[in-house]
Amino acid sequence: MPERTRLVDLVNARLERFLEERATQLEQIAPELSVFMDASRDLLGGGKRFRALFCYWGWHAVAGTVRPDDLLAELDTHSDLPSVIEAAAALELFHAAALVHDDIMDNSDTRRGMPAAHRRFEADHASHEWTGSPRTYGTATALLLGDLLLGWSDELLDVGLARLGDPRSARAARAEFQTMRTEVTVGQYLDILEEVAWRDSPEAELLPRAHRVVTFKSAKYSIEAPLALGGVMAGGTLEQVAALRAFGLPLGVAFQLRDDLLGIFGDPSVTGKPAGDDLREGKRTVIIALARAALPAGAVALIDELLGEPDLTDHQIATLQATIRDSGAVETTERIIERSVQEALHALEDAPVSRAARAELIGLSDLVTRRAT
Q1: Per-residue H/E/C for 55-124
Q2: Distance CA 118, CA 56 (A)
Q3: Where does 198-237 have alpha helices with state H?
Q4: Among its keywords, does the record have Magnesium (predicted)?
Q5: Arithmetic mean of pLDDT, 99-124
Q6: Is the pLDDT of residue 242 over 50?
Q7: Is residue 356 within 8 Å of 69, Cβ to Cβ?
Q8: CB atoms within 10 A of CB 155
Q9: How does strand 110-111 pair with strand 114-115?
Q10: Which of 46, 203, 260, 294 suits a disulfide with 285, CB 3.0-4.6 Å?
């Protein structure tokens, strides 16, 4: 849609300007710090800007009920980008930081078709034949890059909140951002905990524990929190923000379940990541929990033996994929995705939100759950 493209262009322009400002700052400290800017530009040059889009339309959902529906046309006439664009760009910086740290924890080699940040820095070390361990240098430098991006997301959010005319809305937005940051951080821990400690849990708890990871590691910060952030920035009522959450959370679950399917079955030429990457990383996803519950003991033992082995061969990947398909877990996951989308759409039916936002959110619900990347 033209409006979606224009909005993404505005967010991209703000990110580019912000990175230029930070490049000048780092250059004044030391020219060697350009490695952080190069990596940041490459990482932020990709992505679908889903979080930015949901933040804007959460804002519009509220603001458009008291102002013209075509608010996006107004944005082009402003010399300074409005506060919601700053917040949307801040979410993309936060997401980039999470990706850098996530790739370190998962020992991932690629991200968006390029080397993951820690692999990029490893390669720098090796190409210059520096002393010490390339792996140690790569991990340490990537950790610092993630920390920089995380701090920068806060800085950019503060710029946006300072533009708001209502201090109460600014405080509510700051609280929303802080809650999101806490939830995704602990959700990330719950994810890595499940990879190593799943045997400590009763079999009946594996599926709800996997669903808990989906909720806090991804669903909330991918869709629910951006929507709520935009809504409170616009001064949304409790009813309006609750409606955005009721739409955002089930859609976020569907979004992550689609991501989990792609992590097992996705085409590397499309996803930009190796085939079966989540299998090598040992992700104890909802799909794995469903498969284990449906399979005979011998097939479950095969999954438990191979899942998380970093050197899985293509044949072993194919064997695991076939075993998971045979269990019926893929079909069950697809049904959960569809049911979650329908729950989200039902929450919009009588929601007190703008007409344009309702239409756009319906379109986005299809986009984020039927994607191939």
Answers
A1: HHHHHHHHHCCCCCCCHHHHHCCCCCCCHHHHHHHHHHHHHHHHHHHHHHHHCCCEECCEECHHHHHHHH
A2: 32
A3: 206-213, 225-233
A4: yes
A5: 94
A6: yes
A7: yes
A8: 13
A9: antiparallel
A10: 260
Angle of helix 2-29 versus helix 83-106 axis, rounded to 10: 70
- Using an 8 Å Cβ cutoff, are 250 and 341 in contact? yes
Segment 164-190 mean pLDDT: 96
Q: Smallest Cα–Cα separation from 171: which of 161, 182, 181, 163?
A: 161
pLDDT at residue number 165: 84
- Structural domains in the chain, CATH included, are 2-369 (1.10.600.10)
**Cα–Cα distance between 312 and 71 in angstroms, integer?**
51
CA proximity to 307, closest of 290, 325, 285, 327:
285
CA distance 275 to 313: 11
Q: Which helix (H) or strand (E) holds 245?
A: helix 238-265
3-state secondary structure at position 200: helix
User: How many other β-carbons are positioned within 10 Å of the β-carbon of residue 260?
Assistant: 23
The tokens of 211 are what?
A: 């669903």
* 272 CB-contact burial (10 Å; exposed 0-12 / middle 13-18 / buried 19+): middle
Sign of CA dihedral 341, 344, 346, 350: negative
Task: Count Cα atoms within 13 angstroms, Cβ side, for 316.
Answer: 15
Which of the residue ranges 108-117, 136-145, 337-346 would you say has the lowest mean pLDDT? 108-117
CA-based max dimension of the chain = 65
Q: CB under 8 Å to 74, separation ≥6 — which residues? A: 68
User: Interhelix angle for 34-44 vs 83-106, to 10°?
Assistant: 100
**Closest C-alpha to 293, from 353, 205, 368:** 205
Q: What does the alpha-carbon distance between residue 284 and residue 289 come to, in Å, rounded to a whole number?
A: 7
pLDDT tens, 309-340?
Answer: 999 999 999 999 999 999 999 999 999 999 99
Whole-number Å distance between alpha carbons of 5 and 56: 13
Structure tokens at 334: 């697809």
Beta bridge partners of 114: 111
Rg (CA), the chain: 21
Residues 238 and 265: their CA atoms lie apart, in Å, by 40
Instruction: Tell whether the model's pLDDT for residue 79 goes beyond 60.
Output: no
